[in-house]
Amino acid sequence: MIKLLIVDDEVNVRNVVKEYSKAAGYDCHEASDGLVALQMIKEQDFDVVVMDIMMPNLDGFSACREIKAIKDVPIIMLSARQEVFDKLLGFELGIDDYVTKPFTPRELMARIKAVSERSKNGLQQTYEYGGLVVDVVGRTLTVDGERIDITPKEFDLLVYLMQHEKMALTRDALLDKVWKYNFYGDLRTVDTHIKMLRQSLGPYRDYIVTLRGVGYKFEVQDK
Predict the structure, then answer these.
(1) Alpha-carbon span 60 to 19, nearest angstrom
(2) 76 with 157: CB under 8 angstroms?
(3) Which residues cross the membrane (predicted)?
(4) From CA 91, how far away is CA 29, in angstroms rounded?
(5) Residue 56 to residues 49, 114, 125, 128, 221, Cα–Cα distance (Å)
(6) Complete domains list, the chain, with CATH
(7) pLDDT tens sequence across 153-199
(8) Does residue 181 or residue 110 have the better pLDDT?
């Protein structure tokens, strides 16, 4: 059972999420602001935290920073604001997903389930999407039965995208996680590697989705 913490100063939002969470079989807990949530997370473990940005006492961004410093719990951020800056800041702080208000409860439940499963499954050894197969241990890429040679960094980038399937990833985050802190390039490095990766993926190139003003995500498209 997924143990969920919903953090929002709006009672109606908490009630709706709680109702759908219980219907989905989740163990739902609630907090009215970031300070209360932080204290709850210090005292007990949660599988997923769904947290609003604009709250009294301690806002969502500050709460996220404090929480990530003590526990690696998956966080889905909620916000009525659609500014790209908010999304970028959230992902740079380590959130796992970003949902804009107003949202449909069913969509939120699906995102909670996806984030929870990603967290529990950890790192896979093989990723397979039809004819697209990536062997992480053997470091091989196969497209429709044909072995494709790509550079080590392109392979690392592809695996990182797959490990965070459906998650929006900023160029800064990709530079940080794939190229690490000792890399002194710029954001165009990510774009160049994405371009080369798409060429290598052939008929599966559209699985790497461009998010204008944000970055990229890996999402399987219907064929």
Answers:
(1) 22
(2) no
(3) none
(4) 24
(5) 18, 29, 43, 45, 40
(6) 3-121 (3.40.50.2300), 126-218 (1.10.10.10)
(7) 899 999 999 988 888 898 888 888 887 654 555 678 899 999 999 99
(8) 110
